[in-house]
Design goal:
The chain has 75 residues and is mainly α. The protein folds into two domains: 32 residues; 34 residues, no CATH class. The chain is 51% helix and 5% strand. It is built from three helices and two strands, in the order H-H-E-H-E. A two-stranded antiparallel ribbon has the order 1-2. It is elongated, with a radius of gyration of 16 Å. The relative contact order is 0.17.
């Protein structure tokens, strides 16, 4: 569900300045992102959704491969 939020933010940026390039938009998004948004991913493995060993393993492997940044519009 992150894609619709990012697409909306890109549309918002383009309404502010329609001459923005894709590279400028990318750097803006990355520079405003909150880094390290999820501090301890292992604590979420105790939830009822992630009770099986397979789910826990999958959940941790996906989390390990992410950039761990939260979209932030700076407002």
């Amino acid at each position: 569900m992150a894609a619709p939020h990012v697409a909306g933010y890109v549309a918002y940026l383009l309404t502010l300045d329609s001459s923005l390039t894709p590279a400028t938009i990318e750097s803006t998004i990355k520079s405003k992102a909150l880094k390290g948004a999820i501090a301890d991913i292992r604590k979420f493995t105790d939830s009822p959704i992630t009770t099986s060993v397979v789910r826990v393993s999958l959940f941790l492997s996906i989390a390990a491969g992410t950039t761990n940044a939260l979209l932030n519009n700076g407002l």
